[in-house]
Amino acid sequence: METLQNLVRELVILIILAVFLELLLPHGDLRRYVRMVLGLLIIVAVLQAGVSFWNRDLAVDLSWVSLGPPDQAATAEIIREGERLWQMGQARAMNEYEEGLARQIKALAGLNPDLRVSEVRVRLEGGAEAGNLGRLEEVILVLDEDGAWGGEEVPVTGQPIAAPDPQAVDRLRGLVADFYGLSPEQVTIVGR
To answer: At what angle do helices 29-54 and 2-24 cross, to 10 degrees?
Structure first.
């Protein structure tokens, strides 16, 4: 019964407010917007009364809320789980960062028409275990086997291999090193 009384009181107040505002406002577009807003307020008042009437009999169980001191074991478990999730997120971010850098370097190396790069590997300072996105430490460019290397099978050893055109290799190394602020020794070009 009290809910119904509150609803009637709110509706009467909203209707009086609507009539008063209509008397004060000039004819035009503003009057339409005021009517719309007041209509929305009436809808909210009715819905609020309906929801409070509907939920009146529902009891909220707050027995799980404890006002005593926190459980140390549960708190430590929550902190461990949070740290584990943070480390997983950091490792994922590091992998995505490395993959993005590799794609970007491959696109940059594609500007060199003399050598075709088939794969790019990057090594970051600190690695994924450190939990931070480290600086670019080394870039390894793997050249396409049927491109500049004449189709011969050369394993990726991580060591620089002399290409048919050493000037093209130096230009590619310089392009990548200059773009990323590395020394030329930090850019390794190998054949597959």
So the answer is: 180
